Fold each of these.
Amino acid sequence: MNIGIVCYPTFGGSGVVATELGKALAKKGHRIHFISYALPVRLSAFEENIAYHEVTVSDYPLFEYPPYELALANKIVDVARYEKIDLLHVHYAIPHASAAYFAKQMLAAEGIKLPFITTLHGTDITIVGKDPTFETAISFSINESDAVTAVSESLKQDTYYFFRKVTREIEVIPNFVCPEHYNLPEAGKHRKFYASPKEKIMVHISNFRKVKRVDDVVRVFDIVRKKIPSRLILVGDGPEKSNIEKQCRELNACNQIQFLGKITEPNTILAIADLFILPSETESFGLAALEAMAAGSPVISTNKGGLPEINIQEVSGMLSNVGDVEEMAKNALYILSDEKRLTKFKSNARKQAKKYAIGKILPQYEQLYAKVVGEPKRKV
């Protein structure tokens, strides 16, 4: 099948999932066309059965904000027309779904039928999408999609709750991991660069937005480090970083906390983690937590959104209410204070992550693609 994939090329979960999905489809012989304004961060320049098509936006003085949606729709038409795309899969509703619909209508005028699938990832529904400015357009684009998927049951229900005009059936196809990417027996040799043999390593990965509550990560660590020798590794960047750095100084913890910034492949860091902390206000799925579990790291998380669907209480980790730093620290100490218990949690985390192995999720997408495409729709 000849598949177009529209995604954001950044470090966010939607772009990562879209890229890994495209790469997996390409390995199975499908021809994949990534359409975005930059090369996705997890995509190399040369990969078999994969092409990248850049969306360029003219910087015309008349426009205060460049019309990316129109440029994207035009590029979709161009790629579909000349690359004979069978199906378009757009990740993140804003503005990809509306651009896909616009492109579909333009192609229909030429006698070309291009079905498109919209995958909802989270903030396109729960944060940005709730803005009244976008509500009507998002509802319309979702309803006009040939199929819609959500990465968790929680996100599916949120979509129906926040967008009462959405009538399209939403199918839950969860995010996934590639377990082989986290089988890193040599990663342990890097541990000495971050901690001594007697210290535990706690890790957090995010885009440092308020919703991630990175300050809670530091507060949990501050409690734990006073009971168990520990180090904290923070991966990522974002608007809250300067506040977190200030917090570290106020707690006199800077010498035990390391900021690594944005890392394209955090697998090695996750492989040396003893515990992963994700105290988010909400997570529609929690891909970072799943990746941590795949690397064998138990997860301390909140119980909001899709997190309870993947992080099983007292199995792969522990769940707490949002903002309950004391309980999160207590749970962290419970796991880290006993080596046998920690080993069991690590093993359970890996087993839980394997339930979301790409080999189990990919066929669900392929079945959906086949259903949507059906009989050949392209007119000759």
Amino acid sequence: MTRLLFLSLVLALVACDSRQASSAPVAELGIEKRFPVRMGVVLGQLQIAATDLEKARGLMGVTKLTDEQGMVFMYDAETRMSFWMKDTPLDLDIAFVARDGTVLEVRTMTAGDTETTSSGSDQVRFAIEMRAGWFGHFGVKAGDKINIDDLRAALKARGFDPKRFIP
């Protein structure tokens, strides 16, 4: 009887343990993962920023990017986009991309700049940040295509429904 009482007490204490696994949504646990995405004829390795928190953080605090590393910001509607470089210690290029994957324009942003860099179009669906000079160095320019199938696969791997971002 004593053993049964002791076992019941132990089980009750374990069941009442308030420690929980991370409260972050499952999708946010993979922000550090990079996915292969073809941009023009070049294969990059992009982090996927799909939640509001991920997009707000962006590449803040990142001090080094290799040639293939960058981040794509995913949105669920076309809009004019604006970005700034607060707390971002690297100069970056940003490509504003239409929903079909067409690069609309590429702009360069300066580290720490709190002025916004805005797209010239209100038909932007995605934005891709790479180290400054990357797009010019690899010949990716307005009119080139970002591989939408690569983005779909990356979103799905992160646990997002690709149809939310790519119609």
Amino acid sequence: MSDSSKNTCAARELMNGMKASCSQAIFATFGPYMGEKGVDVETCMKIASAFGGGINLTGNVCGALTGALMAIGLEFGDENPMNPKVAEISTRLLEEFKAINGSILCRDLIQYDGGTDAVDMMKAFESGAFDKCLKYVEDVSRILTTYIE
């Protein structure tokens, strides 16, 4: 199995049974292997915990993408806030994802914009709106793997 397949399987496993949000699934899959030391899975889960559902369930940028952007920063970032390598890879990731899926916004991807209200979010889960997220996690995992190999 290729690294891309392994990463996709690991991210998918975290998503199954709601063990992790989309952002957590990606960052916890890649974070431990990024940079000089990486970040342990538990810390990755904590760092990415507010980014699911398009940043704290607001429907903004897809959580799988924000998890990947964190991993890119960990791998290629440095003290330069305008690091050209980070900007280049991040832009490519966002563009490729948008080309595949039509948007980078969670609300567009799942076709639901329920905000942060717990009742509305339960309606979204019950309606199956978040069932699509596994595909987006898999897409992001495959794309991200090509940039870090």
Amino acid sequence: MTRRIEVVPYDRDWPKLFDVEGKKIKQALADNCIAIHHIGSTAVPELCAKPTIDILLVVKNTAFITIPLEELGYQGKGEFNIPFRLSFTKRGVLPKVNLHVYGEGNPEIELNLLFRDFLRNHPESCNEYADLKLNLVSHDSLHEKKNSLFSGYNLGKDAFIKKVLDQAGFEGLCMRLCTHYDEWEAARNFRQKYFFDKVPIADPYTWTFNHKDHLHLVFYKGTEIIGYAHFQLWPAQRAALRIIVIDEPLRNHKLGSHFLNLCERWLKQKNIRVLQAQSSPAAYPFYRKNNYIEMPFNDPEEHESCPQDIDVGKVL
């Protein structure tokens, strides 16, 4: 059975519940806790919301948080679609809590606080968001997850959230696993425009969008998708960088190197030790600038490669 999403009127006890839970978390993490914030709809006065407290936790080191949080009753849920975020939930007791943990300086912190503060300070946007949520939750089909990490209810809020972030002036550089409809559409467009139109053929590898060994990421500047990357996971802690691209009007601003660096850090966290690629001659200076060296590609599937490509790699 599909779990129905509940949206209830604002409860004036929500900030008090956050304060109580926040103090427990601060005490459990001690000096590792840099900041703790009440975010999401329960942090916006008079806004209807799911009766779950969303908490954003900023820590010095994410490696030492799981055990103390488990002792408080939290269960780890992984990253979902946001690299470098650790998600935890607390269920079975009131209040229900979703805990979002980031390292210091992560742009997702600013994103969440700007969205919350904009709704707090703009009643017309707050009311618009309430109307949207009540409309979404009224459709039975939007309570379901259809080939996605998220329900139609959550996906349906994406355009509004981006509009608010634009109005709030968010310009941070964020990386996401493809999840929303427009992210998958951007992935298709980047692949076709910058790679397969040059052949020209229709992209023959869209099947990788639904394969567990293939990772597809988009790179945001604010709410605009400006880049895309495709990785294939290999045995023996190796991965292949199949595609990385920044939209042409935004090149030569070090955005490609920043995106690649984020990808490398994230893959290293996932125990990937060697990242390899087959570079065109035109892209070779980019890889060299980012400390890649010539290294045999050794594709375990032995796919045929372009004779002009240069095999490169990097130990992460």
